[in-house]
Amino acid sequence: MKIPFLNAILDRIPGIKNPSAPLSFREKMKWTAIIMGVYFVLFSVPAFGVNINVLESSQYAIINIIFAARIGTLVTVGIGPIVLSSIILQMLQGAGAFKMDLNDPEQKARFQSMQKLTAMVIAIIEALIFTSTAVSLTSPAYFGIVAIQLAVSGIIIIYLDETMTKYGITSGINLFIAGGVAYAIIAGTGTILIPEAVNSLGVGGATAIPQMILDFGPLFFAIIVFMISIYVLDMKIELPLVFSQFRGVGGRLPIPFLYVSVLPVILATSLTVSLGIWLRVAANVSGPLAPAAHFLAYYSNSTTGTPQLAGGLIYLMQPIGFLPYATNYGGVGGYGNYFYLLATQTSPLYPPWGGAPLLIPEWIHFVIYALILIVLCIVFGKFWVGMTGQSPKEVSEQLQDVGWQIPGFRRDPRMMEGVLNKYIPTITVLGSIFVALLAAFASITGAIGNGMGILLTAGIMYGVYQQLEQEGALKSVPVIDRFLS
Known about the structure:
The chain is mostly helical. The protein contains 19 helices and seven strands. Helix 15 (about 390-400) crosses helix 16. The protein is globular and about 75 Å long.
C-alpha cells in the first residue's frame, strides 16, 4: 500500500523483536508463565473509578468469555480489538480494498503493523464506549481516568499477545481465552454451585439428594461439552499420498472434521457481541430515530445502573440472557425456574416505524439465535478457508509444489483439486454447523463457564497439544508428556 502518511505511522509503531535463536520448550514455558501472570494481574485489578458491582454482573458473561475480558477491570476491552482488527483487515483484503502478498515477509510485516494500529484504535474507541455506556462510574469526574486506564491496558494486551506469539507456546489470544474460562468455571463452582448444593442438603427431605445433583448440572454439562469437543477434534479423513519422485514413499493428508477448528464460532460470536457493544449508543437515542434504534437494539436499565440489552434484532442474535446457576440474576435459581422462564418470558421487538412491540418468547429467541449462529459459522468457516490458504485449489498447489500426488490420479493440480473439492467444502460446512450446534446446546443447558468458552478452550488446548507434539517439545518434559498422553 502506497499511502505516505499511513506508512509513516506504521513505521513508528513499536514491535516485539523475534528471539535471536530458537527457544527451548522450558524457555517458552517460562515466558508463557510470565505473560499469563501479567495478564491475570490486569484481570484481577479493578479500574480506578469503576463501581465494583460491575465486576460481578452476569449480563457481561458472554463478553468476558469471548473477549478474554472482565468488565470493570483493567482487561475490560480484552482481546476484542485484536480479533476485530483481524476480521476488518481480512474482509477488506478479501473485498479487494487493498492487495498484499502475505507470503512476502516485508508485506506480511506491513500487514501485521496495520493490524496492530487498527487494534489500538479499536481499543481506544471501545474504552470510550465502555466507559460512557457499559461501566457504572462512581462519579462522572472519573470518566477520563477510566477511559485512559482501559485504553492503555487494551494496548498492553495487544503487546502481550504479540510477545506470547513470539516467545510463548501459542498465541496470547488462545491462552487468555482459556485462562478466563478456567477462572469462570472455578469461580462459578466455588461461589455458586457448591453453596447451592450445601443449601439443598441443609433443607433436607426426600428431594435433598436429587436437588443437590441438579445443582451441579451446569458443571456436568460443561464436562459433557468438553468431552464431546475433544472427541470430535480428533475425527478426520485421511487421503493417501505418494511422492512422485521416489517410488514407495507415501504419506497421508489429514482433513479434520473441524477443518477450521472453532474459528467460525469465535468470529461469529465476536461479530454479534461487538454489535451489541457498539450499538449501546442506541440506548440514548430519542426523537424520530428512536423506533429504528430500538428495533436494532433495545436497552433497559439494570441494577448496576448501566444499559442492559433486553430486546431488538441484536438481542435475538445473542445467547439467552439468564442462566440456571446465576441465582443473582433475575431471581433464577435451579433448572426448574430456568426452564419456566425460558417458556414464559418474552423480549420486545419494536417495529422500526414505531408502535407497540412484538413480544418474542425466549424459546423462540433461542431458536433464532441458534439458526443465526449456524448461518454465521458457515459463512465465516468458508470465508476463513478461502482467506488462509486452505481451499482445495491452494492445498492442491501446495502439495504439487513439494511433489505429492494422490495415487491413481495424474500429477495435475486440477485433478487433485477435484478430489479435494469432494471433501474440504463439505467438511467445512458440516464442521461449522457442528460447532454452532454444540455452542447452542451448551448455551441452552447453562453449562458453567459458558458453552462457547468451553468449546473454545477445548479447541485451544487440543491445538496446543498437537503443536507441541509435532515439535517434539513434550519429550523434554516427561511428566507433562505422560500426563497429556
